Each structure stands twice: as structure tokens, then as C-alpha cells.
Amino acid sequence: MRIIHKLNEMTETARGWLTGGSVGFVPTMGFLHAGHMSLVQAAKQDCEISIACIFVNPIQFDAQEDLVRYPRDLERDLQLLHDINIDVVFIPRAEDIYPANFSTYVIPSGSMMERLESLSSPVYVRGVATIITKLFQLVRPDVAYFGQKDAQKIAIVRKLVQDLNIDVTLRILPTVRDSDGLALSSQNYLLSPSERQAAPSLYRALLAAKSLIEQGERRPDVVSKAMTDSINSEPLLTLNYATVCRSDTFDPINVIQPGTIFALAASIGSIRLVDNITWLENGQWLL
Ligand code: AMP
After folding, report:
1. 250 within 8 A of 116, measured Cβ to Cβ
2. pLDDT tens-digit profile of 146-185?
3. Which of 129, 140, 153, 277 could form a disulfide with 14 if both were Cys (CB 3.0 to 4.6 A apart)?
4. How many angstroms separate the CA atoms of 88 and 13, rounded?
5. Which residues are catalytic?
6. Which of 39, 117, 188, 202 to mutate for ligand 1's pocket (most ligand atoms within 8 Å of CB)?
7. 274 Cβ inside 6 Å of ligand 1
8. Strand order in the sheet with 169-173
9. Looking at the whole model, is its pTM more than 0.85?
């Protein structure tokens, strides 16, 4: 396992990729869990060369305190990546990625970028789009892996890859959950025991929506109210949004049909969690 910190070493290494075969890339913010590792596993299966990045991206955080307390354990992350036999780990330094004179941001626009996470964060879309574009330039992957849990991140990356003609294939993998349904997240480790007990309410609210659909309910406002009520019944949770919309555009809908995403964000104390499920075009559920 090779560890790269320096940007020019990453660029030099990427220049040599062509001779080695296809490159599968997993960008992460570290504090790895089984969700991240499912992406690494897929990269290893699909590609000759596997590379993960660990970088807590400062420009996608609204509040400095969220950035500071983001969980980190590099030693443990490196052990996990070593054990799975990844080829390269890229760990750039924030001051190299964003030097003092940095001034070029990637800012996707359009209604899709104004929904979900953007409702509560003015910097999220720009922060994600900018770091992913920079990482794609540095790593030059053939395939990049993302988890379905972060639905808006996927939308941002799809858009920038299309609009900026970036030659990379995106592969989206399902959300990995704990046995009680809670979507794995690095932030889960910041929850107190009682908060951790309350956290699966997000998934329960999504399952309540699914159950309504299965009973024939098709009105988005009724389903989103059921999700809202379900979250509100848990005193430790504060709802940020409960959205029922088209999965491809995040546009509002009048009637729920296959191709609909049910997305939630809620805060527990100062921790913000997101989750979603999708009723796919083929009638199956992506849970
Ligand atoms: P993060 O470290 O939170 O930036 O996440 C890095 C990548 O892992 C993103 O593509 C996430 O969507 C993905 N990811 C995070 N949590 C999960 C999960 N529970 N299941 C699958 N993928 C995940």
C-alpha cells in the first residue's frame, strides 16, 4: 500500500496509470466504516488499481466547529485500507489543496442544486463540486465510487462530470446500514448512547413512507407529512427536511410513481444525519 501526501507525487503517479490498467477511486473524509469499505471493495473488484482519498474538505462545512470536531483516526483508517489490500491512499494536506491564493471554485447551478442539502447549507454544493473536480484532476480515475446515502453529492458529481466533460465513470453503491437500520456514517460515532438509540428513527420514517406507498398512497404531501410526524415523534430529533421528489431531478411531483426519492435530514443535538430510499423505475426499492 502506497501512501501519497504531496500533490505533485499524486500527479506524477497518475501520469503512469495508463500502463497499469483501470483505476478505481474512492473519495472519503476518513474515519472509515463498512459503507466506505463497500466502495473500496467494489473498486478492487472492478479495476486493476484501487485508490482511496482521505481528506476532510474544509470548504464544504458551514461552521468551523463542525470541521474541527469531524471524527478522525488516520491510523485506524490506514490499517483498514492495508487489510483490504488497497494499492494507493492519497492524503493531501488542506494547505496544499487550498493554498492562501486559491480562488477558483466549481459552482453547479440549476434547481437540483438548490434542494435537499442546499436548503440548510449555502456552501455544500460548491464545496463538494470543487473538491471532487480537484481530486479527479489529481487522481485521474477511470471509475469513481459513491454511496447512495449522499443523494445530493451524487447529483453534484454527475452534473460536473457531464458539464465539464470529465472522462470518468461513476458507480453508485447502496447504503450500508447497521442492524437497526441506521445508515452508517462517520458522524454516528459522535452520538451519545441515547442519541444513537434515537438515530434509527430516520430509517423508520423512510420505511413508514414505503409502507404508505405499498398501501396505495400516492400523494407526496401525505407521505412527507407521515415522514415528518415520524421524525417529530422522537424528541431527540429535529427535522431539517422530509422531501418526496423525482429521483433524477429532485423536482417536486404531484403524484408519487416509480422514480421517486424519499430523502430526510435531521439533527440530533449538533449532529446532522441524512438518509434516503428510492422507489426505482423498475418498481423495486433501493433501501
Ligand atoms: P464521506 O467520508 O462521508 O465523505 O463518504 C465517502 C463516500 O462514502 C461517499 O461516497 C459516501 O456516499 C459513501 N458512504 C458514506 N456512508 C455510506 C454508507 N452508509 N453506505 C454506503 N456508502 C456510504
Report:
1. yes
2. 999 999 999 999 999 999 999 999 999 999 999 999 999 9
3. 140
4. 10
5. 36
6. 39
7. no
8. 2-4, 88-90, 49-54, 23-28, 143-147, 169-173
9. yes
